[in-house]
C-alpha cells in the first residue's frame, strides 16, 4: 500500500515537473500548457501508452490533466466500439461527466465559502 502512495507521488510529481519546465523554459501560456497536457493524454491513451503510466502511477497519473485526456480517449474508444460513429460524440462526455460535475459543484461551494478578489 505504501508503494502505491510513493509511485503515485513520483508519477504525479514528474507530470508537475514537466509542467514547470514548460512554464520556465518556453513562452507557452498556462492555457496552452493545459491544452497540451490534455491532448497528450488523449493521444497516449488512444495509443494505449498511458495505460502503462496508469499501472505504475495510479492516482498520480489519472488525477492530473493528462489523466483527463486519457479518460476522454478510453471512454470514446469504448463507446465507438459499442455504438459506432455516434460514440465518437457521446463517449467522452459519458466517461468524464462525473469528474466535470464534481469540479463544477466543488468550485461553486468554494465560491460561496470564500470571497474571491482580483490581483492588483
From TrEMBL:
Q: Where are the transmembrane segments?
A: 6-23, 30-50, 95-114
Domain of life, per lineage: Bacteria
Recorded hits in InterPro entries, A to Z, give: Spore_V_AE, SpoVA
Keywords of this protein's UniProt record, alphabetized? Membrane, Transmembrane, Transmembrane helix
Name used for this protein in its record: Stage V sporulation protein AE
Upper lineage = Bacteria, Bacillati, Bacillota, Clostridia, Eubacteriales
Amino acid at each position: 500500500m505504501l508503494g502505491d502512495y510513493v509511485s503515485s507521488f513520483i508519477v504525479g510529481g514528474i507530470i508537475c515537473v514537466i509542467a514547470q519546465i514548460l512554464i520556465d523554459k518556453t513562452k507557452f501560456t498556462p492555457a496552452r500548457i493545459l491544452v497540451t497536457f490534455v491532448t497528450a493524454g488523449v493521444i497516449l491513451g488512444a495509443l494505449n501508452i498511458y495505460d502503462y503510466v496508469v499501472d505504475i502511477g495510479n492516482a498520480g497519473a489519472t488525477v492530473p490533466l493528462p489523466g483527463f485526456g486519457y479518460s476522454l480517449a478510453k471512454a470514446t474508444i469504448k463507446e465507438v466500439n459499442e455504438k459506432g460513429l455516434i460514440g465518437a460524440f457521446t463517449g467522452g462526455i459519458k466517461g468524464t461527466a462525473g469528474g466535470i460535475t464534481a469540479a463544477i459543484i466543488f468550485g461553486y461551494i468554494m465560491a460561496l465559502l470564500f470571497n474571491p478578489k482580483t490581483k492588483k
